[in-house]
Amino acid sequence: MRTSYSAIGTYKQCPQRYYFQEVEKIRVPKSREAIFGTLIHSTLRFMFSRDPLFPTLDEVVEHFRANWPKLDNFNKDAAWDFQKSPWDESEEQAYFRQGVIMLKRFYEKNAPWNFHVVDLESRFTITLTDEKTGITHTIAGIIDRIDRLPDGGYEIIDYKTSKRMPAQEVIDRDIQLSLYATGLQDRWPHLKPEEIMLSLYFIKHGEKLSTTANQKTAAETKEYFLKTIFEIEERLRTGKPFEPVPGPLCNWCGYRPLCPAWRHLYKKQADGKTLEKDEIDSAMAEYFAIKKREKEDKEKISRLQVAIKAYMEQERVTRIFGAGGVIAKKTAQRYAYDMEKIKAALEPLGMWETILKADETKLKKILKELPAEARIAVEEARRVAREYTVLSASSAKGAGVVEKDGDATKDEDAVL
Description:
This protein is of the alpha+beta class. The chain contains 13 helices and ten strands. Among the domains are: 237 residues, Alpha-Beta Complex (Lambda Exonuclease, Chain A); 42 residues, no CATH class. Helix content is 43%, strand content 18%. Helix 3 runs antiparallel to helix 4.
């Protein structure tokens, strides 16, 4: 398989989106965030391009302005792959002003003549061979910038226009940066991991977070890609569906009208049906009403239990009688065992092994801490014992339709 970090990231985020994008090859309009990020990247490439001199700050801003996609050009400019404008006039002005501010701050802090830039938007491909199958896969990518450092090492820099900055520990195990380091080492095999600095530059915040390449992360990256590629190929081979994973990012996904997780909403909007006219909505309304009563009943029961228990303790009784029946109170105990003593008692009888069943909760907790080889061995020991369907109900606040998962409460209660 030939793929990329971006495609694999899409699959991990949402298999359904991957299927539409990479298998069906369905093109959809880019989001305004994607357009904005692309233009910031291209402007930064211009900023560090010396031809024969580095551009001034005014020239950088003018490049950004000249390449800004105008509202009137969206339907004409196929390069942006847009059927309509992603923003209205006020939004366009806000994004443009933000872009100019970001670029000015970046230029003031990173004058291009202060860096030894080796390459910009550097393309690479690496090959990974699955030792179990003997199949070789190709991973392609683009590195935003490669700098030569004063100590003789190299720095890989990837620009980010996102709003959030991750913790340093996330940077230390970042799969994307590790892949880029592998790509650079494939190009220049003499480089040692410790000679490669890996950085994510968050343009909006004017901050750069860095780490160093290492063999452990490189091994984990290889495992990550091979495992994910195997999952994708297995789905394609067996016909197992690429199921959607609804979440906050759905609001920026162009595949929503086609997605099984959202298609019903768009169908209703197209048909002009109301909740009262749609039979399934009637069933859903009744379902949510029952769930609401169930939740209220649980809360009432909890409050009544507290009152009843207090009364029984006050009256020093263990049972009380009423028209509906009898309520009894008793003391329950849970035990903790000294497993070494238990082992000493059971092992001579040959019964010790019968109680050593795997604790899956603890196994999942330590799985991320295991070395790559041990983790692969554990995952290969897995098997699907049972497959079932769970109905997850999301009740919106006030409205009848959930647009964002962040505005909803979820309740999973039906196993089919």
